[in-house]
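Treating backbone geometry as a discrete language has practical consequences that deserve illustration. In the encoding step, the backbone of a single protein was reduced to a row of integers, each denoting a local shape. The amino acid sequence and the backbone structure tokens for this protein are reproduced below.
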Amino acid sequence: PHTFTIRFQIEKLDERPQFLIIGAADAHPSEDSLVTVAVNGQAAPTQRAPKGPGVLAHDPSAWGEPKALVFALPKGALKPGENSITIRLEQGSWIIYDYVLLSTDAKPPSLERLRDDLLDEALKGPLARCDEIVFAVRTPGRDGHWYANFGYYAPDANRLTYGDGGRLCRLNLRTGQLTTLLDDPKGGVRDPIVHYDGTRILFSYRKSGTPFYHLYEMSADGTRLVQLTDGPQDDIEPTYLPDGDLLFCSSRCNRWVNCWLTQVAVLYRCDARGKNVRMVSTNNEHDNTPWLLPDGRVLYTRWEYVDRSQVLYHHLWTIYPDGTSQMVYFGNMHAGIVMIDAKPIPGTTKVVASFSPGHGRREHEGMVTVIDPAAGPDEKSFAKRVSRGNHYRDPFALSENCFLVAQGAEVRLMDHAGLTQVLFRLPDADARAGLQCHEPRPLRPRPRERSVPSRVNPAQPTGRLILADVCSGRNMAGVKRGEIKKLLVLETLPKPINFTGGMEPLSFGGTFTLERILGTVPVEPDGSAYMELPALRSLFFVALDENDLSVKRMQSFVTVQPGETTSCVGCHEQRVLAPPPTNRLLALKRPPSAIEPIPDVPEVFDFPRDIQPILDKHCLRCHDFDKRDGGVVLSGDCGPMFSHSYYTLIVRDQVRDGRNGAGNRPPRALGSSASPLMKKLDGTHHAKVSPHEVKMIRLWLDSGAPYPGTYAALGTGMIGGYAQNQLDRSDAKWPSMVAASNVLKKRCGDCHVKHMTLPDSPSDDLGRPPWQGLSKDDPRRRFARDLLYNLTRPEKSLLLLAPLAKTAGGLGLCEAAAQPNPKSQIQNPKSAGPVFADTSDPDYQTILIANRETEKHLVTIKRFHMPGFRPHAAYVREMQRYGILPLDLPPDASIDPYATDRAYWQSLWHKPLASQTASRPANRRER
């Protein structure tokens, strides 16, 4: 706790009620801050300061817009003479205050910085040749995430992310006259952009009675409304291209957010009539708000996480309109902030964007920020906050000193100091109905950006990548020249559906996606590589040494377009450094390497199918429930969510993966070279494992160490799963489980307290879901539900074996305390023996009965590896929508989840025209 004290004198006491008002200009960005105020030792009711942008603590030059905390002071607390007020911050809370005011008026002072001359200045300056602006009006998305404003939620296609009400409006800045170009009370309007000639407006429109947003174009006077795109997908955030085509984001990619319940949209392009639609980006997560830079590149937001945190990396990238030369523009190295709605500032090389705090806010709400890219993408100080609050949207730069912005029901002008002038406000009735203003743009002609000729050849199935030096990078300390012999090529695979914000059941605190192994390519002695890669796939690499162990893992992805040749300097190299002068790269003295498949291993690993048989063969004789050496159980029996063996390997730190943390880890920090499990396979740990078995475990580790090898496992086969991050605790209400929980309290509750508390049912996660993880030393790891409850052999549950006497077949780990004699002087009576002397104990039987009921329930709902398993209904629905499963599939039809996943992924692959590829060599394996 931190206490700040103010001491002051009162000459004449005012008897009226007194209030202390704190203007908090900034506060903790991820949780409300606990603030306690006391006057002369008498405390006022504690309050929580709402989350702030968290910027001022790191950038004192930034602006803040105070939010008032009003404390009613206890009656009689103030006195004539000396007084003291203490402001105490609890539990890691912090605020930065703009003012502290003692007043008899509970109303905070009005500090809104408004200008009444900003429009006049703009009309004489950057808006001198512009009379009108256009903007959209709609209800914001219902979900708090910045991206979740189209489509439906995974479990229920009738539960929509958007509300009704949409308009497209023109506002005359000189007269104030508003013209409504389109009004659809049951529809939705978003993302307008004005054509280069100033006479047409392109926008995304969800027509009344239809569920999907599509691209429309309209004359600026409201006539000639033309629908451009159609189909059972959403098309949003369009922009005009200088060659006449359109670029936009679309859910045609048929994938779902890896950490939420809504659909993904990535970059596509089409011609001016909405035809010839082509995928440009293969991102598994969202692309957002593409906009042209003057040099012809497209600036956009790319959210990605390959073996790193899902909430920290959603930053700015560039790409050419044909999809080539994908490159980070600003961010992606340092964590935090959603950078979105970025657009160039006329007459400069800078851009303006919305920096939406934390993991982003609804409808991109955030801080108006100017970015200067001159120092490269990693120089955080070259991003300067303009706005004094974090509640603005859709900034559009008219000049370096003038920006159009939306805020709630208003359209405003903002200057470089964050002062604003209101240009338009919706009527109160519209505001009360939830309508807001969005995306203000000037209605005027504008110059075309540079047109970049396309380098894509859609007839080609592949592209090429040149790596100059794998040892060149900002975090490659200790890697010796020649140490890296090859690159393992992997593909991060999109999800056809998802049900929660965590990674379960794919992993416990690790990967969010499955990763396909494509094979390897060689690295030359000078560190160079030249390879041919399948086009339009999200690929990443693991650098391998002479023993095929991981040296460095890429925690991003790269995509090559059909026919593209692209290159990179090194491994996460400094973006402001040119490659060092060198002779011709050795890899370029030969044709590009084809990916060499790895024989006799699965492309996508599945722990029960591929790894558990190795553990059964070599490990169970020492690490099963009957012989539990080191307290380790590697049985494949089912726990509530994972198998005992999988969970044990993870929480015993035998697997080193990204753990949902930061990116660009040091060499040998992740995967096979870092995982202690690999060191137990060298023959020194009581087992002689075959070379093939070693290879299987090594590649499982280097492909993310997943539990299931199919996305059909999502949302199924769990006791205590999570739906939209909410734990399903329905088993705790079963009569048998209520009785068992009472037994645990009665027989075990005296010892198992605090961090040794036992889960009271198989669904009890002890308050720590998988995405929060547990630190290595957290004692709760020892008492987790996936260790204590055995749903394959209920009588082998550690919850029963630990308190059961050894003579009765138990482990005898828990002993009952003898009841103390009140007349005895002994404070710590001796043990009364095992908690359960034998299996006939009624309380033992009560727990066993509850566990057997849970076993029956799991057999009924089935896990992915069980006979008769059937995927979640939403998985089936989406696979039917994608055309993978037939629409007339009988409800009881058998579904092969692995084959269905493969067909789904292959449906997304780039398909060159057969007539244009018939001459390709037939001996190269298609992947």
User: Anything to note?
Assistant: DSSP finds 13 helices and 45 strands in the chain. The domain at 118-443 is CATH 2.120.10.30 (Neuraminidase). Residues 824-829, 915-927 have pLDDT under 50 and may be disordered.
